[in-house]
Design goal:
Blueprint: H1 9-27, H2 43-52, H3 61-72, H4 80-102, H5 127-130
Length: about 140
């Protein structure tokens, strides 16, 4: 019987896309200015400002992962202190992962140990164990 809590790759991708949309929506400016709110300005002056404006910065990996975790495992225990702790842990884990990924490895690199199966010490053989088994009559 399949596990009802198991998530396949399509569900994961959908959840990740939804999480990124939620984060992008949360970080986007919420107020929309109408034409009546803006003062009349020269169109020539507005054109350079549109070109000079930078693209919005995408949210960090840590924030995306935190949002995903909050959506995947909703809980009333997620207060500010807990979320800050989780965010700190995610940031540390991602930094360690980047550090490990930056270390160059070749195909010939392998662990520095040799695996050998453990064998228990042999028990001393007694006289009974040396005789072949006799059929029961």
């Amino acid at each position: 019987m399949p596990d009802p809590h198991r998530i396949d790759r399509r569900q994961f991708a959908g959840s990740l896309a939804a999480a990124s949309c939620v984060v992008a929506t949360a970080l986007a400016p919420s107020g929309h200015a109408t034409a009546a709110d803006k003062p009349a300005a020269d169109p020539a002056k507005e054109a350079p400002q549109a070109d000079a404006s930078e693209k919005p910065v995408p949210p960090s990996e840590e924030l995306l992962l935190l949002t995903y975790l909050m959506q995947r495992y909703p809980s009333e225990h997620f207060d500010d202190a807990a979320l800050q702790g989780i965010f700190r842990d995610l940031r540390g884990d991602l930094a360690r992962g980047r550090l490990l990924s930056a270390f160059p490895l070749n195909n010939s690199d392998e662990p520095s140990f040799v695996f050998r199966a453990y064998r228990a010490p042999q028990l001393p053989q007694t006289e009974q164990s040396q005789t072949p088994l006799q059929p029961v009559k």
